[in-house]
Amino acid sequence: MSRWLTPEQAGPYAHLTTETLGLALAEITIPGSGAERHEEELVAAGITFAGLPGALVVGRLSTARAGLELLSLVVAEPFRRMGLAQQLFNWLRAEALRLGWPSLNLSYPLGHASTPALTRLTDPQQGWQRMPGLRLVHLDRAGGQALIKRLEPLAAHWQRSGRFQLKRWQNLSPEQQHQLDTLPTTPGWASAMQGRQDGPLGQHDGAISQVLFDHGRPAGWLITHRVGHSLFRVSRWWVEPSLQGCGVALVLLKHAVADALETKPEYRSGCFGVAPSSEAMLLLCQRYLEPLAIGVQANERVILQICSTE
Q1: Measuring CA to CA, how many Å separate 116 from each of 18, 111, 113, 120?
Q2: What are the backbone dihedrals phi and psi of residue 282, each rounded to the nearest 5 degrees, phi first?
Q3: Cα–Cα distance, 41 to 200 (Å, whole number)
Q4: Beta strand pairing status for 103-109 and 2-4?
């Protein structure tokens, strides 16, 4: 039987997900329980089979999107090919309808051992809609050091111009933070103030996050979070349209990576996600990041509409 899990009940299932999500199971909530809602909350559901944890799904609820984003789905090896994943998906669909969520969605890697199973579970004949997902690029410390060296001439060029100033987030004045919060032209997905919030899957790192000022006015930023013990994730990376394509986004990246290599506790790797709709960022990553990466992962995104939001 499928059921939502409390943090105490989730403990025996922790081996059925990633290290980061396993640690975050201590913060899960029960959907619809009346507990205090935050900007983002983590939920988990499991199946017990023969008295043992058989399958686990971990998801994220966001007040901004209201639907459930599935972050992880794993069936215990002894119980695979027994239909537990399909059973869990069917139950989630019924729960989403009961709770009034507009959608279920997930991203999964292409060319991975799990890809065929997830493709079957998200059959378009069952209502799932497919689209390209994020392209994820991973750098280790050696790749980060090589990237800094490669970007040093570009960073030196912009520093000589005197036009721009970079500041770590932790060094921003209250007035500068207010400027970031009131910029009229920032797209919603790039919001610096929302992007710097902590969540169950990462803590904002103000010593690495960078803000770019153009003649004293905020013009771009790169926001990072610590995920688990040793991974930093770039959560927001944006510069205003008039500056896109001139290299200042790479200056933000160079300084963020340089600070990440110096910080304690030590980071061992970094992760960058690029949306398929951002051709400029895809080209930038292909030119500067991917040749130095330890891994590049293409993803597919699928969405199942449950309830109308009207």
Answers
A1: 20, 9, 7, 6
A2: -60, -45
A3: 7
A4: unpaired
User: Which two structure tokens, joined as six digits, stand for 305?
Assistant: 């509409």
Query: Can you tell me the distance from the alpha carbon of 217 to that of 214, in angstroms, rounded to the nearest whole number?
Result: 5
- The total of other beta-carbon atoms located within 10 Å of residue 242's CB is 10
State both tokens at 64.
Answer: 């901004």
Sheet strands (E) in 116-266: 128-140, 164-168, 203-204, 210-214, 217-227, 231-239
List Cα–Cα distances, 115 to 45, 73, 239, in angstroms.
21, 12, 34
Among candidate residues 189, 172, 182, 164, the one with its CA nearest the CA of residue 252: 164
Rounded to a whole number of angstroms, the distance between the first and last alpha carbons of the chain is: 33
Tell how many helices (H) and how many strands (E) occur in the chain: 9, 13
Residue-level pLDDT, tens digit, the chain, 310 residues: 899 999 999 999 999 999 889 989 999 999 876 554 556 789 999 999 988 999 999 999 876 556 899 999 999 999 999 999 999 999 999 999 999 999 999 999 999 999 999 999 999 999 999 999 999 999 999 999 999 999 999 988 888 888 899 999 999 999 998 888 877 777 777 788 777 787 777 899 999 999 999 988 999 999 999 998 899 999 999 998 888 888 899 999 999 999 999 999 999 999 999 888 888 888 888 999 999 999 999 999 999 999 755 5
Reply yes or no: is the peptide bond before residue 291 cis, omega within 30 of 0.
no
| pTM (predicted TM-score) | 0.83
Q: Can you give the three-state secondary structure of 75-114, one letter per residue?
A: ECHHHCCCCHHHHHHHHHHHHHHHHCCCEEEEEEECCCCC
